[in-house]
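Quick one, T. Sequence first:
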Amino acid sequence: MDTIQRLEARSGASGSPSGATERAAAVLIVGGGAAGITVAAALRRHRPELPVTLVEPSDTHAYQPGWTLVGAGVFSLAQTLRREETLIPKGVTWIRAAVAAFHPDENQVELADGRRLVYRHLVVCPGLQLDWNKVDGLRETLGRHGVCSNYSAAPAEYTWKCLQEFRGGTALFTQPPMPIKCAGAPQKIMYLAADRWRRHGLPRPAEIEFCLAGDALFGVPFFVPPLQRAVDDYGIGLRYRHTLKAVHGPSRTAHFTVTDAEGRTREVEKRFDLMHVTPPQSAPDFVKASPLANGAGWVEVDPATLRHARYANVFSLGDAAGTSNAKTAAAVRLQAPVVVRNLLAAIDGRPLEASYDGYGSCPLTTAYGRVVLAEFTYGGRVTPSFPLDPRKPRRSAWLLKTKFLPFLYWKMMLRGSERDVRHRERRFAEARTA
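Structure tokens:
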């Protein structure tokens, strides 16, 4: 009896609620988003004969970096969506189901319907979850009463409606405690809104406030000066250490917990005419509750090899991975080749030699037609792909974000291509203060 037969026999003995098990997958991928599809496609490119199974419950795949542009009226929502079945690589088995639990000691994944999948190697990349319910009243009022968000598909369309219908008054933009995916997104839409309102004029003045739970405008200090200039230019009020706790849509009021420098807290109520909310975010519940999770609930992996710290046949990437990089599609683009190479090395019994340096990219839209292209690796090292000062808002970076990056995502990345413009650490002169 070989290893897989033993695993199948063991899974049948332990059983699931339905007593059903599937034949073992050589590679089982949990999650069919950017990370899962990219890894599946690359595995098929490198080793077409390798059986790969992908578990993903949704029939729609979204290019989420485009939702800021949906909210700003640059993209339609349809431009960011594809049918999942059109993206599953040929030869990959798709199980359209939700995962309920991991059982790594038995090499099994339990599905919501009670089935158990057996695997030789597991890739965990289900993304993260949006914790709308952690803000009282938010789920009930989202998409109404001027409360919008670019962190989900339908509310992103409503963001554009809100931007168009805003006639002045108070506009609040919120950012919860880290980590969140695309940490620059909460302020990207704020700058685009301010730029639009300035260009089109408003019947009455707009008071824009950025209420963020942290105490820094951006996590990499190198990129703070151009963002601060945008804040100053638009007259935006920065409200640090403000954590959104509740929203009441009909009265258009928001409640924040404010923490002072000594750690004391107080409650503040703010009225608004428009509010863009970035919800709290965390690892999916089925990841948090599993043996794969670290103390914070994310999949515990080596930050360089992306292999699990305790289970040698498990890898993870994307938003669910417990790494300190920015949770962006650009990070996935660089993580996927590392996972694929190291996974194949593990299958072959070879040393793991591929290494991820923590690269992430955040194209920060400071105005329509202008982007600060922030690229950085672990430790906040600035690693641009082009020999230009990345602190300067550029039209070329806008074209990169609106034209090239969507093409790169749909036509290259999700097809397993590893072509890339190489990033490297560069030094730049100190930014001059005004």
